[in-house]
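Appendix B, record 7
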Amino acid sequence: MTPDRLSLLKTLALTAAICAIGLDAVASDDEKDATKEVESQVTDAATPMQKGDMELAAIAGFGVAHDLWEGEPDVRFLALGVRCGRVLSGPRGPGFLRGNLEIAGELLPVFLVDPGDTTYGASVTLLGRHFFMPRSEWRPYAILGIGALATKDGIPLESNGFNFTLQAGMGVRFTYENKIAFYAEYRIHHISAGRTEAANPGVNSSYLQFSASVFRW
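Structure tokens (predicted):
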């Protein structure tokens, strides 16, 4: 074999080796991209709350007053209405505090109060909710809210029918197939005139609320 042919064969072999290495690198990159895509899908499926998500939910709640902090003990109420919320952040925070922050507004156009005689009213509440365990279908959360309540008759009866509300509590959210969410929560629910009237005993209740999302986007 002549030196020229030998040199040509060496060049062809080197070129083939370089091509093989390049093809293997491309295949490896494709595999890595596919793996990342699958991992991303799994993460998204396990994290049903994303920043910017919005939700409309139907809610129902029941409260019973307690003889606490000089409040009126003989009050019971039923609340029906809707809640609209928006997720403000992706998962944030250290350790077990990591989670999503949501702001929501509640409108309760049916608010039945029984301080001896039933009266009717409506309530609006601005809520902040922090959802823990961002990769779980079952997500505990903390609640803090402030709002206003207007009733046909005063609560207590000596007041003028307008009160403020403060609420704080805990709840749990269950997401079914990332399509519908169910909520159950317990709140300490406070009603008072905010010391704007002489008669201001307030109403301090245990409040249970259940809700389900009816539209999510």
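Remarks on this record: The first helix runs from residue 3 to 46. Residues 33-46 have pLDDT under 50 and may be disordered.
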